[in-house]
Structure formats: structure tokens, C-alpha cells
DNA sequence: ACGCATTCGATGCACAAGCAAATAATGCGT
DNA sequence: ACGCATTATTTGCTTGTGCATCGAATGCGT
């Protein structure tokens, strides 16, 4: 793969990312009061059985720094969508857990999310 | 394409974008004092013949808001890498033009940029 | 020629993100 | 048991971004 092609696919990736992200941000924001990263976090937690996640684990999943995730969790917590639980075995750690309200909000937002992705990623 | 696949490719796109962007940011920043968007703007202007771009035009190219681009241009201008020129025909408008220093900086950063993309986008 | 909607770019403001330092808890070596 | 490096998270600070707004310039309709 030569330089020209590499740059071409990078720009295409950037374009696809930008437009999709932007539409998601608007739709999720207006209809459900969620940012894209908020939704991504809720989405991970709604998928999981136990629903317990460590902060760093979530940060890796959604590609944010751990400090960004700490504040994101604080916002979600203030909104009642998530709660922090002390971790018995290691009291440095925190378990972040989705609440009933969080599950509800996620369920409401899911169709919007899927619809935008479907429209955006199939050109 | 079903929901599951769509979400899968979206997450893959997010991952690829995040890691590539992050490495680019670090490498371009440390070695050349440029952010990724800075480079993208210089890259567009270095490509072009005339080298004259309108602010909104650049904003569209690099997927930033017009206000973000206005400030980005201000930073590049302060660094001496681009300059703003009054636009004769329409005195609301501004032509952004790359300087000699800008062309030099771009030339120096280009190999780094291509190398990172090559490594990152070929897995 | 005049008014008015429109367009271009800059700026005030609020906010999310990263980095580095602070805080707190662990556990390993001795 | 004690000190010290390490790990997990939070917080202070700075910066870049978007949105809304502003000011200036344009041009269209009358």
C-alpha cells in the first residue's frame, strides 16, 4: 500500500468518523440527552451480565483517558444513570454499575443509535 | 447489514481512529510541534497550486467548525506558518495562505505522518 | 439609493479532554 | 512490621472545540 493510498484511506476514515459522530451527537443529544461517549459507556454496561466495570476498563473500551472517564462517570452518576460502588477486595478500585434508569435510558436511545449508524455507515 | 455488524464496524472505526489519532498527535507534537489538525490544514495548503484557501473551505476539509478553524489559523499565523490576506473581491472574506516556513515545517513533518499512517493502517 | 436578509469570519462563553500531580490502598522485599 | 514502588482513581490546570452571537460587507428587491 503506497503513501497515496494510505493517506486516502486515512482521510476517508476521518470523514466517516466526523460525519457519523456529529450526527450521533446531535440525535442522541436532542432526543435523549446523551453524548456519544455517554452512550458508548452505557452500551458497554448494558451488554454485560454483571454490569460491574472498573473505570480504567471503561476508559479502554471507549478510548478515553481515565481522567476523562472519571468525570464522565461523575456526570452519569449525577444524572442517576450509573452508580459507583466501593470494591471490597481492593479499596482503591471502584465498580461502576448501570442503574435501572440507566438501562431505561439506554433502551430508549438504542434505536436512535442503530438507525444513525445504519444510515451513516452504508453510505 | 444487520445491527450487530453495523455496531461492530462502528466500534472498529472508532478504535482505528482513536489509536491512529493518538499516535499522530504524539509524534507530530513531539517531533514537529504540530497537532493533527494543524498538520491536516498545512497538508491541504501544501498540496494546492495557488495555496489560497477560504476559512470555511478549510473547515470543511478537515471536519472542524468554522470557529475552531478561525482559531487554528490564528495559532498557525502566530507561529508564522500561514498568513491571512484580505480578499479583494469580497472584503468579508479572508485568504489563508501557507508561508515558506509553513512549507518547510510541512516537509519536515510529512515523513513522520506517512510513517505513522503506514504502520497504523496496515494493522 | 435604501432597507434587509444573507454570508464571512471573529469572539464570548461553556464544556469536555488530556496531562500531571495528589490521594489512597496494595503488596513486595527485607 | 516497615518502607517503597506500584496501581486505581480523582482533581487542578490548560487547551481545543462547538454553539451562539457579533460586526462587517454583500447583494437583492423595490
Automatic annotation (TrEMBL), chains A, B:
Keywords, in A-Z order: DNA-binding, Transcription, Transcription regulation
SUPFAM superfamilies: Winged helix' DNA-binding domain
Domain spans labelled HTH marR-type: 1-123
Cross-referenced PROSITE patterns: HTH_MARR_1, HTH_MARR_2
Pfam families registered for this protein in UniProt: MarR
InterPro entries, sorted: ArsR-like_HTH, HTH_MarR-typ, MarR/SlyA-like, Tscrpt_reg_MarR-type_CS, WH-like_DNA-bd_sf, WH_DNA-bd_sf
Alphabetized Gene3D superfamilies for the sequence: Winged helix-like DNA-binding domain superfamily/Winged helix DNA-binding domain (1.10.10.10)
CDD domains, per the entry: HTH_ARSR
PANTHER family: MARR FAMILY REGULATORY PROTEIN (PTHR33164:SF99), TRANSCRIPTIONAL REGULATOR, MARR FAMILY (PTHR33164)
Protein name: MarR family transcriptional regulator
Organism whose genome encodes this protein: Sphaerisporangium flaviroseum
Amino acid at each position: 500500500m503506497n503513501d497515496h493510498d494510505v493517506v486516502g484511506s486515512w482521510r476517508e476514515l476521518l470523514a466517516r468518523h466526523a460525519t457519523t459522530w456529529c450526527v450521533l451527537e446531535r440525535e442522541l443529544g436532542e432526543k435523549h440527552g446523551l453524548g456519544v461517549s455517554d452512550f458508548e459507556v452505557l452500551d458497554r454496561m448494558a451488554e454485560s451480565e454483571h454490569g460491574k466495570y472498573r473505570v480504567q476498563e471503561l476508559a479502554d473500551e471507549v478510548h478515553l483517558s481515565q481522567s476523562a472517564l472519571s468525570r464522565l462517570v461523575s456526570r452519569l452518576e449525577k444524572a442517576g444513570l450509573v452508580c459507583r460502588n466501593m470494591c471490597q477486595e481492593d479499596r482503591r478500585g471502584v465498580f461502576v454499575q448501570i442503574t435501572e434508569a440507566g438501562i431505561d435510558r439506554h433502551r430508549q436511545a438504542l434505536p436512535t443509535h442503530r438507525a444513525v449508524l445504519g444510515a451513516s455507515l452504508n453510505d
